[in-house]
Specification:
The complex is a heterodimer of chains A (133) and B (286). Chain A is an alpha+beta fold and 133 residues long. In chain A, a hairpin with a 6-residue loop joins β2 and β3. The longest helix of chain A has 11 residues. Chain B has a single domain, classed as 3-Layer(aba) Sandwich (Rossmann fold). The chains are: A alpha+beta (133), B alpha/beta (286). The interface between A and B is medium-sized, with 32 and 26 residues. Bound molecules: S-adenosylmethionine. S-adenosylmethionine binds next to α3, α5 and β2 of chain B.
Chain lengths: 133, 286
């Protein structure tokens, strides 16, 4: 699971109102490089919860990867930024799409319910008594 | 159990027996033979991972992938940012989708869910063997994603559990979840449709398999009431079953028609005509 998916996952336990963001616990992670696509990042940016992404990157061992506040679009998508080492857009790309959480857990901020991540797959399956009706 | 119930049960058993001849998960040769047009643009069957509790690529999986291939130009033109498969099983379909849209590169990201824990692992294996990445989640339909992912998914593909079975078979873990569809095979489908409608973006499309028994026309009608146009992309008849691949997309004209008339559109409404002509053209051919 990458941090992109973490950013869009919420706790689904019965009785929880927001259940977001899920606290990320990382036991094992890996990095897989992929090509940067500025159009994808431009499209997803307005939907991102920046704080949740910063917290997740930090939990994955990259506390200084992202600025605390979301950078301006003008900075992110400035000419040449995608090719500039250490630019805001490269950092965003790295955080969202290149960090993989292989083993760990997602913890519901409201209920404390822990969802395991095994072999890269978060398990959001609930027990019968936890399901919303 | 009343006499009526047992008749229904034996009908169901007959259906299951039919299913296992058309697509036997246990005894018959397990690997379907892909048509040649399929091989370059799809997952390679020898690389598809397997597990005794996970549905192997079958006629329905191939029909869905063939329909996606036939619609490849539209899929590419859509330039989807996010694609999702609900019920990914072996991973054959989501891997094939990613391969056929390869030229979109990392502009397109993939997500897949399954309720069967063995299936999510198997899907990871299939993706990995093809050098493709998708984020895979073990969950019921899209539970946990519905809030934050609402309106964001451009392509959804589903080969749902569609076989009519007794209701009690729903919720059985493992391989049974890959076919058990409850009453008319619609029980899981009818939970998938509203969830997927919420996730689809304005330009988003849903591709879904349905069986004749699921009342595909009724499904299109229901989606039409929610503002979705529909088309039959493919119909395939085996001796045992008639499979349809349905495509749905939001259409402003359809939703105004449906709301203005205050009732569901009649059978001669224009939204139905592509469907009908397909029906007439192909319906009696086999
Ligand atoms: C007919 S199989 C299709 C598998 C694969 N997509 C293919 O086409 O070969 C249906 C899949 O849906 C999964 N499934 C059934 N109910 C589900 C649910 N409520 N949520 C998510 N997945 C479900 C099953 O575990 C199974 O893997």
């Amino acid at each position: 699971m990458r941090l992109l998916t973490h950013n869009f996952l919420a706790s689904n336990v019965r009785g929880v109102s927001t259940g977001y963001p899920l606290a990320l616990e990382v036991a094992k992670s890996s990095i897989k490089e992929v090509e940067l696509n500025a159009d994808f990042l431009r499209g997803i940016l307005p939907k991102l919860d920046w704080r949740a992404l910063v917290a997740a990157a930090s939990a994955a061992g990259f506390p200084d990867l992202l600025a605390a506040e979301q950078p301006q679009e003008a900075e992110l998508f400035a000419d040449g930024a995608a090719d500039a080492e250490g630019s805001a857009i490269r950092r965003l790309h790295h955080a969202l799409l290149e960090i993989h959480v292989d083993e760990g857990a997602l913890v519901c901020p409201d209920s404390g319910r822990s969802f395991p991540i095994l072999k890269g797959v978060p398990n959001m399956l609930l027990h019968e008594d936890e399901v919303r009706h | 159990m009343s006499a009526g119930d047992s008749a229904a049960v034996s009908a169901v058993e007959g259906k299951l027996a039919e299913l296992s001849t058309s697509c036997d998960l246990r005894t018959l040769p397990r690997r379907g033979k892909p048509a040649s047009a399929r091989t370059l643009n799809t997952a390679q069957i020898p690389l598809v991972a397997s597990h005794p509790e996970v549905y192997e690529p079958c006629d329905d999986s191939f029909a869905l992938v063939d329909a996606l291939l036939s619609d490849k130009a539209q899929l590419l033109a859509l330039q989807p940012s996010l694609c999702l498969e609900v019920g990914c099983g072996s991973g054959y379909v989501i891997t094939s989708l990613a391969i056929m849209l390869r030229q979109l590169g990392s502009g397109t990201q993939y997500l897949a869910t399954d309720i069967n824990q063995h299936a999510v692992e198997t899907t990871q294996g299939t993706l990995g063997a093809h050098g493709i990445h998708a984020d895979v989640i073990a969950t019921d339909i899209v539970s946990g994603l519905e809030k934050r992912l609402a309106g964001m998914v451009d392509v959804v593909v589903v080969n749902p559990p569609y076989v009519p079975t007794p209701e009690e078979e729903i919720g059985i873990k493992g391989i049974a979840a890959s076919w058990a569809g409850g009453l008319n095979g619609r029980q899981v489908i009818d939970r998938i449709l509203p969830a997927v409608r919420e996730l689809l973006s304005e330009k988003g499309c849903l591709y879904m398999i349905a069986l004749e028994d699921n009342d595909p026309l009724g499904i299109c009608h229901l989606m039409n009431e929610k503002g979705f146009a529909s088309r039959v992309l493919l119909k395939r008849c085996t001796e045992e079953e008639s499979l349809y691949v349905l495509k749905f997309w939001q259409d402003a004209a359809v939703s105004t028609n449906a709301s203005q008339s205050g009732k569901s559109p009649g059978s001669d409404s224009s939204w139905l005509s592509p469907f009908r002509s397909f029906w007439h053209k192909n319906g009696s051919s086999s």
